[in-house]
Specification:
The protein is of the alpha+beta class and 421 residues long. It is built from 15 helices and ten strands. It folds into two domains: 215 residues, Cytochrome Bc1 Complex, Chain A, domain 1; 184 residues, Metalloenzyme, LuxS/M16 peptidase-like (Cytochrome Bc1 Complex, Chain A, domain 1, 2-Layer Sandwich), CATH 3.30.830. It is found in: Mitochondrion inner membrane.
Length: 421
């Protein structure tokens, strides 16, 4: 314990050095509810949407370089020091963002923010780490993901719905070749700049986070924020052979989730809130061999909504798909009881409130600020939705082209017209 205390004291002393103030172009957002733990996320606009042509999967590689060697510390030192403080480090990749997150005890932000900053401001990006540490992890990620019917269906759904941009694959191809370290460095130099990075914190004040960001991100070069063409929804259908029968039925939209969309996703959600209840979803009556769950995936300028169905065979997929089509048509025709509309609204409001009050909500608000947009209070918007407006929204939805992805035996998989879409 004495050795540990001395190590912590030395680390705190090292972390207290003064630095020049960073450019105000770095977006900083903080929210403090007085909780005993804090969290800081460095959000980088480096998702697969922004990958340069000919370098598919490079964002996945860069993500796995997180917390490796930097000019300030080795990968081993990063791990050991974080363990001494009892913190947790994580890196996540979406189609739009690379997020580096540290969760820690309140008051330890003076150590964890410079640790996060070192992965962005001064990563070494060494070739031997790429070959020995990063690429094996990338390969395992990809090989594991493709064994999931749900993952594969959602990847194909994005490609069919949006084609390019948001349609880019989230992970590297399973049998791709190791990229050159120069291509990784080129992408890193493109995304790691002051206009392309946001620092978001919960459990610490705005002024504190701004001060620390000014100290530790001063070495981040200036640059421009990455952009891509606005997302455009196309829709369509595709089938693919798989040993995991899976069906996705969905629709894409421009902009953030609307109250009608959130309510519809809640209406079709099959996971009960109470362990002794089957729930009131119209899909809850499906046989236990058929699993269906609603999906709502928001992005900065688009949303993908749908239902993901898994079953033992193509017949089960068809039964589940027909149930989804029937449920959508019933809502569009105004054929569901006011009680069920109220239940769906309550569930949608609860889901939105849970997200908003947690760390995910803080990150979403910080991302909205980063994108120069206003944060939407979906709870209030859903409350204003009435049964008539809900039905009209769904009727208009059914007039658009759906996105349908079917995996399984391609000789027997159902097609959209066979499902009643």
């Amino acid at each position: 314990m004495l050795v540990q205390r001395r190590a912590l004291a030395a680390l705190r002393a090292h972390s207290s050095r003064a630095y020049a103030t960073a450019s105000p172009s770095i977006s900083v957002f903080a929210q403090d509810a007085g909780q005993p733990t804090s969290s800081i996320t460095v959000l980088v606009k480096a998702g697969t949407r922004f990958e340069p042509e000919g370098h598919s999967g490079i964002a996945h590689v860069l993500k796995n370089f997180s917390f490796k060697s930097s000019k300030e510390r080795s990968a081993l030192r990063t791990i050991r020091e974080a363990e001494l403080y009892g913190g947790m480090l994580s890196a996540t990749l979406t189609r739009e963002y690379l997020a580096l997150t540290a969760d820690f005890l309140r008051g330890d932000e003076g150590f964890f923010l410079p640790l996060l900053a070192s992965s962005v401001v001064s990563p070494k990006l060494i070739n031997h780490e790429l070959v020995e540490l990063v690429w094996p992890t990338v390969a395992i990620d990809s090989q594991t993901a493709v064994t999931s019917g749900e993952y594969t269906a959602l990847e194909l759904a994005h490609a069919v719905a949006f084609r390019s941009g948001l349609g880019h694959s989230l992970l590297n191809a399973p049998h791709a070749h190791v990229p050159s370290i120069d291509s990784v460095k080129a992408y890193a130099s493109k995304v790691f700049n002051q206009s392309n990075v946001a620092v978001i914190g919960s459990g610490l004040s705005q002024s504190k986070l701004e001060s620390l960001t000014g100290q530790y991100f001063s070495g981040l070069p200036s640059g421009s924020s990455l952009s891509s063409p606005a997302a455009k929804y196309f829709g369509g259908s595709t089938v693919s052979p798989s040993v995991h029968p899976t069906l996705f039925i969905g629709y894409g939209f421009a902009g953030a989730p609307s109250p009608g969309l959130a309510t519809l996703a809640a209406h079709l959600a099959t996971k009960p809130h109470l362990p002794w209840s089957d729930g009131l979803s119209p899909l809850s009556t499906l046989p236990s061999s058929i699993h269906a769950e609603s999906i709502l995936l928001p992005y900065s300028d688009a949303t993908l909504f749908g239902v993901l169905i898994s079953a033992k065979d193509s017949a089960g997929l068809k039964q589940g798909g027909e149930a989804v089509a029937k449920a959508l048509k019933e809502v569009a025709a105004g054929g569901i009881k006011a009680e069920l509309v109220g239940r769906a609204k309550a569930r949608a409001k609860f889901a939105a409130a849970v997200i908003e009050e947690g760390k995910a909500g803080v990150i979403a608000k910080g991302a909205a600020q980063f994108e120069g947009k206003t944060w939407n209070n979906l709870v209030d918007d859903v409350e204003k939705l009435d049964a008539k407006a809900f039905g009209k929204f769904t009727a208009d939805l059914l007039k658009t082209k759906p996105t349908v992805v079917a995996l399984g035996d391609i000789n027997t998989l159902p097609h959209p017209d066979e499902l009643g879409l």
